[in-house]
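Q: My labmate handed me this sequence with no annotations at all. I'd like to see what the chain might look like in three dimensions before we decide whether it's worth expressing. Could you predict it?
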Amino acid sequence: MAAQAGHNRKFGRAVKISAGGFQIRAFNCDIRVAAGCIAGHDVLERYVFPGSPRKNHDAGRPDLVLRVDRVAEQFVLSVDGTVAASARRAISLVPALVRALDEAVIQRLTELRAVHAGAVVLGGRALLLPGATHAGKSTLVAELLREGATYLSDEYALIDSEGRVHPYPRPLLLRNGSPEQHPVLPAECHVPVGHAPVPIGWIVSLEYEPGGEWSVAEVPQSEGLLALLRNTPHVLADSPDMVSAFQRAVMGATCYAGRRADATHAVSQILRLVGSQS
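A: Here is what I predict for the chain of 278 residues:
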């Protein structure tokens, strides 16, 4: 396949760019990816919405263009032609890659509304763990998956007009006690991934308190609704139907709020709460 010369200003040298790659459509977003090196292609193929059908590039203009190139001793991720991240290993670009995908998809949602929340399925109903980025959602989700839960997302719960949660199966980004995030695919953990929307059974809002104790109480559904509204990236004025969708979401949910310490102990307590309401 033909190649063209590109120029990366940050690193000040010409880079030979391959025209190869693929395109996918996910959540109303057209995404085009390409790579100028094998390691970059492998990362894109593995972590850009794994499981979504790949197709050849369309003639039309995509909503998002991602590419990975090797420049000297660095791998470089470009988003819409602008350098977004660089690293000595291609896999170290994945957190920035996932964030770029998140931003593009969330901006283009039309029939779904996003909430910052870990989301899994237990007994046919969704358990939501709303919280800001870096609140430990991914760690809790990973522990729940080890206990047999079905994966929906570790960062965004996508809620439809009927209040059901849809899968958003991005790679989990886990720290495992280190500052750097490490991508983990659900398939690598041999856990099931949700493929259909499910009603919400529980909303559990937890604040992490290192060295603290489990202190969680049931709260009214109105507080569960506020937890969803506090953690949505959408602007209410731009999404007037959002409140009614979230109201339907909490109608069948049992809501809890409080503090937790380590993830393993927290998950054992969460499963006790869920079991008592099953």
